[in-house]
Design a protein that fits this description.
Layout (H helix, E strand, L loop, with lengths): L2 H5 L3 E4 L5 E4 L17 E2 L8 E10 L6 E8 L1 E6 L2 E6 L8 E7 L7 E10 L14 E8 L6 E4 L5 E4 L20 E3 L18 E2 L1 E2 L25 E3 L6 E6 L3 E8 H4 L4 E2 L6 H8 L4 E3 L6 E22 L5 E7 L6 E2 L2 E2 L2 E2 L1 E5 L4 E5 L4 E11 L5 E12 L7 E3 L4 H16 L16 H14 L4 H12 L22 H18 L2 H20 L26 E2 H20 L3 H21 L1 E2 L4 E2 L2 E3 L2 E2 L5 H9 L5 H11 L22 H10 L3 H12 L41 H8 L3 E5 L4 E4 L8 E6 L6 E6 L5 E6 L4 E5 L12 E2 L2 E2 L5 E4 L2 E6 L1
Parallel strand pairs: 8-16, 13-26, 37-41
Antiparallel strand pairs: 1-2, 2-8, 3-15, 4-9, 4-12, 5-8, 5-10, 6-7, 6-9, 10-11, 12-14, 17-29, 18-21, 19-23, 20-29, 21-27, 21-28, 21-29, 22-26, 22-28, 24-25, 30-38, 31-34, 32-33, 34-35, 36-37, 38-39, 39-40, 40-45, 41-44, 42-43, 42-45
Helix pairs in contact: 4-5, 5-6, 5-7, 5-15, 6-7, 6-8, 7-8, 7-9, 9-10, 9-11, 11-13, 13-14
Length: about 850
């Protein structure tokens, strides 16, 4: 079978040097019958090093017709072929479902000698809650699959050596991660190990890894295999390969000598000082010369990339042997004080120079807008030849847009959502400043922006699958996946949001196969959640914690906000079952939702306070009231129309607040949970007021002095969750705040998706004071265009792709005056709906 047949119908990512990366969300499209011959390898047991250099040279008499390389490692690999850097990987995974990459490297091979070289870093610690991690590299290159297949495999024939420049005590970036800052001594760096003519004759032979646990113990003469614990299942990559390229620092904003006492402070107050000679030399692309300094002085240079870049800092520098150089990174600066200590993380790499011209690139990426170099007591002048970032980017393609010239703030929030998604994404939606974890609820919130802007489905699928892979036997899912360390963290609202994400995934992608594969996990989870309910159908005093974004809330007994998440899960899961033609189960969950909605409406409404209480405990309502609970009552259609009007009046009061608690006493929602507030208000007809409130609360995030991204909390210099401000920063880019595109699509453009795969949409006339506005929304079938003109000549122009039908809600166009509707110049009857197939249409009304 030829390579062309192997990869037919698959997705291809173009990498450096003509290499193609093969991936697919449908594993059936990849040749899973391929036989692994490779063995997991590492250095001999006597070598204690976290970083391994590995090489394998081989001869080719002619260029093969196919050259397919499969590679993975624990925990990170950097791949070179014939001296050329290709990519790094693998995609994040737990070892029990180890992700491997598939690369077509034929373009790099040559006749005679060829060399595959890999640098691998092992993250010490446990990488999943039930299986310990293990250092290892797995590589297999299959040549000429059409004829007589030859394979180059990782085994004891590979040459390996520890990277002695690496300090095994390199500090973790923070307590949430296993990734580390670099501490390297460049005196011991092995240069050019990746090249073909490098002499590795004195290197060690690799050790093939055998099973090292269980009974009976493995024998030394047993043959190593690919399925060595903990890597018991190898899974082909199911997301695109990341884009990698170099960015050179060019905007020098500070360069001065500091005293030791200045650099040791918590932060460096910037003064905008740049010596004339340094600024001029740098701009001419000459080596930047740093004059010698005394032992108590530190050179400090700071560059601004103008936006946040996820990537590995890199530098080429020439200085006296054993000079210590610190590379500091930060995504933002507050009050003109630079610090690499951001959101409980420290982004600080440390190098010891060799005395030659040294080149270095960090092992792990830092979220960097500001990149600094500090050098203490250099006795001789230093030459800095280059400084920059090796950028890692998820290959998003921006498709969706909105145009609201009369309300530019709408476009600004839309664009801020786009920028935030980009900043927070590498191979998953995460908080890149701190935890870098793929939280279960993040997939739900991130999708509210992603589906309408980038329209990417691979990341959404990956999030659903990886969380399910960590599911416990009783149905419980973790707060994040793949897990790190051995703390099986549980957040019940995350579990509910996983179900809701499954519904959204089917609705916006139409991927029935994945949803059917995940259905047993969903059913097991919903069975578990039901076991925590009381006779009223409410989750009551569950045995696990729940998040609510850590804001102040009465969590005793049956909490309304948690039950709102559960109600949403019941509603959404019943619809999924209906789409899968499981009518009996659909009815069961629909009835559970009806009971819960009725119970919450009956028992949580406080007639005296005229609000929904936070909780119901021991047959009594809580005396605490929050925006969370009342937002959920609206978003989940718990409130009656009369109650909704009362609640909306109070939620929309222009009272004083500190983004934590309102003057009237209600606790305020966090940015992430604001989605339910605005969605709920709009649900009951308060669309304009809801959007105005959204603008009022979020606009300070888009001040010109910020990164133009949406924040984790209302404040960057403290906490808006408990009201206790702290002397630390918070993330100013978090995908749990990127819901505005979902709101704008529904309540500005008037578009709702009503059938899986976006095969059907409904378009209604929005309630807005805007006159001319429109936008384009991505779908699996193509782009949908909606353009409104509500001035004197009222028109709606829509474009529908093939395979989609649009239901036009004619009732939404009606007013007190007689209505006449013209479709492409022809009068149409006054029905409730008119259904249109693919094409371009113009309505006059």
């Amino acid at each position: 079978m030829s390579l062309q047949q192997h990869v037919f119908g698959q997705d291809i990512s173009t990498l450096e040097n003509g290499v193609q990366g093969i991936w697919s969300t449908d594993a059936s499209k990849i040749n899973l019958q391929h036989k692994w011959k490779a063995q997991w390898i590492w250095m001999p047991d006597s070598i204690q090093s976290d970083v391994m250099l590995a090489r394998r040279s081989f001869m080719l008499h002619k260029i093969p017709s196919t050259a397919l390389l499969r590679i993975t490692a624990s925990s990170k690999y950097e791949l070179y072929v014939n001296g050329k850097a290709i990519c790094q990987g693998p995609a994040r995974s737990a070892p029990h479902h180890q992700s491997f990459d598939i690369l077509d490297i034929r373009s790099l091979l040559k006749e005679n000698k060829n060399t595959i070289a890999v640098r691998v870093h092992y993250q010490k610690g446990t990488t999943s809650y039930h299986l310990p991690g293990r250092a290892g590299l797995l590589v297999q290159l299959d040549l000429d699959a059409l004829n007589s297949e030859t394979s180059i495999i990782s085994d004891s024939h590979w040459k390996v050596l520890p990277d002695e420049s690496w300090n095994n005590n390199s500090p973790a970036i923070n307590r949430f991660q296993l990734v580390v800052n670099d501490h390297v001594n460049l005196n011991h760096k092995i240069d050019h190990f990746e090249t073909t003519d490098f002499d590795d004759s004195n290197w060690l032979q690799a050790t093939s890894l055998l099973r090292n646990s269980g009974w009976p113990a493995p024998k030394k003469n047993e043959k190593a295999t690919t399925l060595t614990t903990p890597w018991t299942l190898l899974v082909p990559r199911d997301i695109p390969y990341l884009k990698e390229h170099n960015l050179i620092a060019s905007n020098l904003v500070e360069a001065r000598l500091l005293q030791a006492s200045d650099i040791e402070k918590k932060g460096i107050r910037l003064q905008g000082i740049i010596p004339k000679e340094i600024s001029k030399d740098f701009k001419k692309n000459k080596p930047l010369i740093l004059p010698a300094s005394n032992k108590d002085e530190t050179w400090f240079l700071l560059y601004d990339f103008g936006k946040i870049i996820n990537g590995m800092p890199k530098i080429t520098i020439e200085g006296e042997k054993n000079t210590v150089v610190n590379i500091l990174a930060s995504p933002f600066i507050i009050d003109s004080i630079f610090t690499p200590e951001i959101v409980a993380s420290t982004f600080k790499d440390q190098l010891i120079l060799s005395g030659k011209k040294d080149s270095w690139q960090s092992m792990y990426f830092k979220p960097t807008r500001y990149l600094a170099v500090s050098i203490k007591g250099n006795k001789e002048a230093l030459k800095m030849h280059s400084l920059g970032i090796h950028q890692l980017e998820y290959p998003f393609e921006l498709k969706g847009r909105i145009s609201t010239p009369e309300a530019p703030w709408i476009e600004e929030l839309w664009n801020a959502s786009v920028k935030t998604i980009d900043v927070c994404t590498t191979d998953a939606f995460t908080d890149n400043y701190r935890e870098r974890r793929q939280y279960a609820q993040t997939g739900y919130y991130a999708a509210l922006g992603n589906y309408f802007t980038y329209g990417d489905s691979a990341l959404q699928r990956k999030y659903l699958v990886q969380v399910a892979q960590e599911q416990q036997a009783n149905g419980l899912m973790p707060a994040y996946a793949p897990l790190v360390k051995d703390d099986y963290m549980v957040i019940l609202d995350s579990n509910c949001l996983w179900i809701r994400s499954l519904y959204n995934y089917l609705l916006y992608t139409g991927d029935y196969k994945t949803v059917r594969d995940l259905l047993p996990s969903a059913q097991k989870l919903m069975t578990l959640l039901h076991s925590y309910t009381n006779e009223l159908g409410m989750l009551d005093s569950p045995p696990y914690s729940y998040w609510l974004d850590h804001t102040l809330n009465d969590r005793r007994g049956a909490n309304l906000t948690l039950n709102g998440h559960y109600l949403g899960a019941l509603d959404d899961f019943s619809k999924v079952l209906a789409w899968l033609d499981k009518d009996e189960e659909h009815t069961i969950f629909k009835n559970k939702a009806a009971l819960l909605r009725s119970s919450l409406g009956s028992y949580l409404w406080d007639p005296e306070k005229q609000l929904f209480a936070d909780a119901y405990t021991d047959e009594k309502r809580s005396k605490q009231f929050s925006e969370h609970a009342n937002a959920m009552a609206l978003a989940c259609n718990i409130a009656t129309p009369e109650q909704a009007t009362i609640i909306a009046t109070k939620l929309l009061e222009n009272d004083t607040h500190n983004f934590i608690k309102r003057e009237q006493g209600m606790v305020m929602v966090s940015p992430a949970m604001s989605y339910f507030l605005h969605k709920g208000l709009a649900n009951y007809g308060f669309e304009k007021a809801s959007l105005n409130l959204l603008n009022h609360r979020f606009k300070h995030m888009l001040h010109p002095t910020t990164n133009g991204t949406l924040w984790e909390e209302w404040w960057r210099n403290g906490t808006g969750r408990t009201g206790k401000f702290q002397e630390r920063t918070r993330s100013d880019a978090q995908t749990e705040s990127v819901f505005p595109p979902a709101l704008f699509t529904e309540y500005i453009l008037g578009l709702q998706v009503t059938k899986p795969g976006m095969q059907e949409i409904t378009i209604s006339k929005p309630s807005t004071s805007l006159t001319t506005f429109g936008g384009e929304i991505p779908s699996p079938l193509g782009m949908v265009s909606v353009q409104w003109n509500l001035s004197a000549a009222k028109t709606l122009k829509i474009s529908i792709p093939n395979g989609m039908q649009a239901k036009i809600d004619l009732d939404s166009f009606k007013s007190q005056a007689p209505l006449e509707l013209l479709l492409n110049g022809r009068k149409i009857p006054q029905n409730k709906y008119i259904t249109l197939k693919a094409g371009a249409y113009t309505f006059l009304f």
